[in-house]
Write a structure and sequence with these properties.
The structure is a homodimer. Chain A has 12 helices and 19 strands. The first copy, chain A, is globular and about 60 Å long. The first copy, chain A, is of the alpha/beta class. In chain A, 29% of the residues lie in helices and 26% in strands. In chain A, helix 7 links the parallel strand 12 and strand 13. In chain A, helix 5 packs across helix 6 and helix 6 runs parallel beside helix 7. Chain A folds into 2 domains: 201 residues, Quinone Oxidoreductase, Chain A, domain 1 (Alpha-Beta Complex); 138 residues, Rossmann fold (3-Layer(aba) Sandwich). Chains A and B meet through strand 15, strand 16, helix 10 and strand 17 of A and helix 2, strand 15, strand 16, helix 10 and strand 17 of B. Strand 16 of chain A pairs antiparallel with strand 16 of chain B.
């Protein structure tokens, strides 16, 4: 089969690799219908996150089960499924409490020798614990929206839940990437009344408004903080979604959060900023979030997509066939595309 | 009147100062019945926190109102009152939401030219917003317990609430100072089932057990983390109270918190440690807490003290008259005393 591999910075290839196949009794093999490229894939693309030459890449996909091992109980060939961005056994203490990202048997697509999502098919460990079945009657037109549930929508939702977005809340969202935009959508879904989106890109601003942003702040840094404070009676936003993960974005989030408020953080800390407790303490600022337990959120988000109440698909603004996946990376890297769908 | 002043590291004096008097219409003057020395006063005593020579010190006291300004509506001379460790106007947006520590008109006893708690009397700004009246029928024997509500008990409670201590919870408390011990007591009061207290001092361990600690860990650092993990099936404690505020105590708290858990932080970050987001992200660790809004918690904690359901007074293990307050500082600095009461 063909799959995307990464051989070094800016060196994305599509290569012939061994066919995905059942290896363990709990495995399933999923034929990918749609995959996509994540902002976090760009860290590998830029050489910031190291990868072994030839390693697979991609961690978001929807597809159809084509084979299952003898222990798989809940799925059968032909089922359409969504894969969250980590696999998990579904039975350990962490999985049971709803934190599959801490599953001791879990792992990331493309890590080590595992299959990545940007390929023709994927071997899925712990298929019963990992995959979420899509009802057969779901319209094919929903596929992009379902694909977004594999990571960005669940991650934006995690930020919103963690920040305390709730009916009537005032929320600020730092970052207008696909995750930040999904954070806006999630905050609206949770009933937030005022949603302040921070970001400079006009095209992304349009998606933010479509998703429910009531205010947009195009300033950066200290000016953005001042602007949000102006918009909130000088107090700041009680719920802030940190959807970037850099030192600057954290400084902005801390600057504009209201005293006693909470920052829901989901921006992958590739540059691993350190939080100044001295700036949090006197103001009673809390933080919550982290790597989104997407598997836990999938059933409720899926139900809303199927019912027509939730559509994160506008975060995708380009589609490339698998053979042109490298163009997709380039487009996201130079920001000419927001998020790119890959069709095997 | 006489009051405690600080002139430099290890230089605590009792001096004649101008009598406390009403200056603003909302002021009250409180004759101090009992005051005490706080672990955070030691930072000034050790020269880590700078003070102007001759500045007042002390921020915990109970006493009787002896004079009120014309705007004071809820108090009159003769009323016994508890003062939280900051004053606050009681009317601003932060006070109304229950965060008086962020009150724009608020301040700390002993800051600038204000009176400190370790003296014969204190001018209290915004007396209606700041002070909490103790019912006349309260027994004098309760005074030490009431004094503890001015800071340590409310601070321990803030750590416990912020960490998510609740009925049935497993809680770990980092720090066996007076705040950590009150954190144990607060966790028990909130219904925690298992309370693991970390600390090396045998005498403090006795108070921890009295306050409800079910397990005690005398190891430090990595060994303490391993021990707590042993006690919790390898998973760690879902609720951790950080009651120290140093880089080491934070590292311990992060090490022993269960993935998806929350650290309630109240240790004053004098050395202002920076939190490594890279170590929090993948494990979904949250933090909440900060400077305790003691004024907000006072009514419920006071009710429990008066009803005999709550007694934090065992954190006090020595009493000195005001003239010997310097001995009290020395005793707390060399750890021969846990927390010292001062009687004017």
């Amino acid at each position: 089969m063909r799959a995307t591999t990464i051989h070094g910075p800016q060196d994305i290839r599509v290569e012939q690799v061994p066919d995905a196949a059942v290896q363990d009794p709990g495995d399933a093999v999923v034929q990918v219908e749609l995959a996509c490229i994540c902002g976090s894939d760009l860290w590998a693309y830029r050489g910031v996150s190291k990868r072994a030459p030839g390693q697979r890449i991609g961690h978001e996909f929807v597809g159809r089960v084509v084979d299952v091992g003898p222990d798989v109980a809940s799925l059968r060939p032909g089922d359409r499924v969504i894969a969250p961005f980590v696999w998990s056994d579904g039975t350990c203490a962490y999985c049971v409490q709803g934190l599959p990202t801490s599953c001791r048997s879990g792992g990331f697509w493309g890590s080590g020798t595992s299959d990545g999502g940007q390929g023709e098919a994927v071997r899925v460990p712990f298929a019963d614990g990992t995959l979420v079945r899509v009802p057969e009657e779901a319209d094919d037109a929903l596929l992009p929206a379902l694909l977004a549930l594999s990571d960005v929508m669940g991650t934006g939702h995690h930020a919103a839940v963690s920040a305390g977005a709730a009916p009537g809340a005032t929320v600020a969202v730092v970052g207008d990437g696909a995750v930040g935009l999904c954070g806006v959508l999630a905050a609206r879904r949770l009933g937030a009344e005022r949603i302040i989106s921070l970001g400079r890109h006009e095209d992304r601003g349009k998606v933010a408004r479509l998703f429910g942003a009531t205010d947009q702040v195009t300033e950066r840094g200290e000016e953005a903080v001042e602007k949000v404070r102006e918009l909130t009676g000088g107090l700041g936003a009680p719920a802030v979604l940190e959807c970037v993960g850099t030192e600057q974005s954290w400084a902005t989030a801390i600057g504009l959060v209201r005293d006693g408020g909470r920052i829901g953080y989901v921006g992958v800390p590739h540059q691993a900023p350190n939080l100044p407790t001295g700036k949090l303490f006197g103001r009673n600022i809390g933080i919550a979030g982290g790597l989104a337990p997407v598997r836990t959120y999938l059933p409720e988000l899926l139900a809303d997509v199927l019912a027509g109440r939730l559509d994160p698909s506008p975060v995708f603004d380009r589609t490339v066939p698998l053979d042109e996946v490298a163009d997709g990376y380039r487009a996201m890297d130079d920001r000419s595309a927001l998020k790119v769908v890959v069709t095997p």
